[in-house]
C-alpha cells in the first residue's frame, strides 16, 4: 500500500509536468507516455490509435521531449550506433568474422553519397571500433533488422525515433524497458497510415504493398505531425479517477529534489505551491 501523502506528492509532481505543456495541443498529435509504455494518436480530441511501446533501458533511458514527425522510411537500413558497434558487435566479429554476413550487416567508410560497401576480409576488423578510421556499420532491410519494416523520423537532439521491431513478444511484458533509447511500436503500420492520412497516394494498402516489395522508400509526411514524449506517473481518467504508474526512471525523485531546491516545495508543507 502506498501512503496517501506519497500519492498526493505524485499528483502534484505530475501537475507540475502538465504546466510545461502548451495550453493547446492542436487538432492532431501523437503522445507517448513513457511511464505507461503507451502511445496514442489523437485527431480532433478523439484517440484514433493506441498501442503499447517499448522504451529505453534504465541506463539508456528515453528522454522526454517534443518534436515534429516529418518523414518515414519503409524497409529502413539500421545505421548502427558507434557505441553498439564498439561494445557489442566488434567483440563478436573478432571471433566470428561471418557474423556480419549472417546478420546482413555492411561496412561502409564515411557518409558520402557515393560511398561503397567495404569487404570485411579486406580490412582488420578491429579497426571498425576506431573512430579515426571512419568505418561505420549498417544493417540491410530484412527480418533480422531491429527497426523492422517502418521507421518514423522526428528530428531531435537526442536522435530518438519511432520504429517497428521483430521482437513482438516483448510487448507482452508489463515493464517494457528493453531498447537503447528509441521507441519501438506495437502497431507501426497503423501509425504510419495515421501520419500519411492526407496523402493522396500512401494509404495503408499502399504502405503495405511498399513494404512487401522489400525496397526502401523515404516518404515525406503531407504535413508535420506534433509528437510529445512525456513522463506522467499520474493522470486523471475520463471518469475523474486518478491512474498511477511506477516511477520507472526515478524522475519523480529528481523532480521533487529540483522543486525543493528551488523552493517550489515549501519545507513546511512538502507540496508544490498552487500555480498562480
Automatic annotation (TrEMBL):
CDD domains: YkuD_like
UniProt cross-references to SUPFAM superfamilies, sorted A to Z: L,D-transpeptidase catalytic domain-like
Transit peptide keyword on record: no
Keyword annotations from UniProtKB, A to Z: Cell shape, Cell wall biogenesis/degradation, Peptidoglycan synthesis, Transferase
InterPro entries, sorted: LD-transpeptidase_YkuD-like (IPR052905), LD_TPept_cat_dom (IPR005490), Transpep_catalytic_dom (IPR038063)
Domain L,D-TPase catalytic: residue ranges: 28-210
GO MF annotations, alphabetized: transferase activity
One record GO biological process: peptidoglycan biosynthetic process
Pathway given in the UniProt record: Cell wall biogenesis; peptidoglycan biosynthesis
PANTHER family noted in UniProt: BLR7131 PROTEIN, L,D-TRANSPEPTIDASE HI_1667-RELATED
Entry protein name: L,D-TPase catalytic domain-containing protein
Amino acid at each position: 500500500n502506498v501512503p496517501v501523502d506519497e500519492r498526493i506528492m505524485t499528483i502534484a509532481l505530475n501537475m507540475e509536468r502538465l504546466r510545461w505543456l502548451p495550453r493547446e495541443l492542436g487538432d492532431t498529435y501523437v503522445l507517448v507516455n513513457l511511464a505507461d509504455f503507451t502511445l496514442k494518436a489523437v485527431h480532433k480530441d478523439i484517440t484514433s490509435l493506441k498501442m503499447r511501446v517499448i522504451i529505453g533501458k534504465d541506463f539508456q533511458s528515453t528522454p522526454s521531449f517534443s518534436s515534429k514527425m516529418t518523414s518515414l522510411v519503409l524497409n529502413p537500413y539500421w545505421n548502427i550506433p558507434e557505441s553498439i558497434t564498439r561494445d557489442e558487435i566488434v567483440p563478436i566479429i573478432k571471433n566470428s568474422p561471418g557474423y556480419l554476413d549472417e546478420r546482413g550487416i555492411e561496412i561502409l567508410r564515411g557518409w558520402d553519397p557515393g560511398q561503397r560497401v567495404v569487404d570485411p576480409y579486406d580490412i582488420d576488423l578491429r579497426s571498425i571500433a576506431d573512430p579515426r578510421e571512419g568505418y561505420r556499420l549498417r544493417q540491410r532491410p530484412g527480418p533480422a533488422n531491429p527497426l523492422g519494416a517502418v521507421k518514423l523520423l522526428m528530428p531531435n537532439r537526442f536522435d530518438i525515433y519511432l520504429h517497428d521491431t521483430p521482437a513482438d513478444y516483448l510487448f507482452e511484458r508489463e515493464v517494457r524497458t528493453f531498447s537503447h533509447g528509441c521507441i519501438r511500436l506495437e502497431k507501426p503500420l497503423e501509425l504510419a497510415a495515421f501520419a500519411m492520412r492526407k496523402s493522396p497516394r500512401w494509404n495503408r494498402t499502399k504502405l503495405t504493398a511498399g513494404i512487401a516489395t522489400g525496397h526502401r522508400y523515404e516518404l515525406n509526411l503531407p504535413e508535420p505531425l506534433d509528437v510529445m514524449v512525456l513522463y506522467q506517473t499520474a493522470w486523471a481518467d475520463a471518469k475523474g479517477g486518478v491512474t498511477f504508474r511506477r516511477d520507472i526512471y526515478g524522475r519523480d525523485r529528481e523532480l521533487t529534489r529540483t522543486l525543493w531546491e528551488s523552493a517550489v516545495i515549501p519545507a513546511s508543507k512538502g507540496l508544490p505551491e498552487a500555480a498562480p
